[in-house]
Amino acid sequence: MKKIALIAFLLAVCVAAGRAQESRQDVSISGIGLIEPFMASQTDVQVHSTYALGALASYRFMLTPSSALEANYGITYQNTIKYVLPTFPNGVKVNTRTMEMSAAYVRSFAFKKYNPFVEAGPAGFIFDPIRNTGTQTLDAKRQTTVGAMYGGGVAYEISPSFDIRAEYRGYVTKVPTFSDAIFTTNKWYNIYVPTLGVAYHF
User: Is 98 inside a domain boundary?
Assistant: First the structure.
């Protein structure tokens, strides 16, 4: 009877250890920078932007040791988008909070403690005007756009449960108009989003 109990105990320990080593899920918290490029268009509208800082939360589920699905939510604090057009040569400024909601397929590669990865997938973006003294028009309204997210980076394992991730991410979406026709550019943005964070595996 004692031998059976001992065997059962050892099996339970082995199963628990095996599951602990699998670590098929992880969550991460990152700081991000959001850098929108200068845009000029055939509609005579020029778009200038300042950079923004924010945060990104991500969840990954491993399908295999080298592939995963990822869900992301990101938000920035504030940046200024300025539209320069013939009727407003000095520009019209809109202080903006940008949100990202995306899903991605992630392909990773193992090299000792370094794990390079690439990812891509569909995304939705919300450009939310902030009503403060920096916003110079009351006509600016919240705008939701669709597009894509892509990226590549490297994760460095600091323990079996934690790693540090550095990544370049990109957002591809239409230049926002805040539902105001005078801001129309008919152009697409490729927004640069450098990212640095920590992930926990479980």
Answer: yes
Note whether residue 114 is domain-resident. yes
- 80: domain CATH number is 2.40.160.20
Q: Is 177 exposed, middle or buried (0-12, 13-18, 19+ CB in 10 A)?
A: buried
Burial label, 42 (beta-carbon count in 10 A; 0-12, 13-18, 19+): exposed
Is 16 a member of any domain? no
For 12, the token pair is 């339970």
Q: How many domains does the chain have?
A: 1
Residue 8 domain flag:
no
- Which domain range does residue 92 map to? 23-201
**pLDDT, one tens digit for every residue, the chain (202 residues):** 444 444 444 434 333 344 444 679 999 999 999 999 999 988 899 999 999 999 999 999 999 999 999 999 999 999 999 999 999 999 999 999 999 999 999 999 999 899 999 999 999 999 999 999 999 999 999 999 999 999 999 999 999 999 999 999 999 999 999 999 999 999 999 999 999 999 999 9
- Beta bridge mates, 108: 117
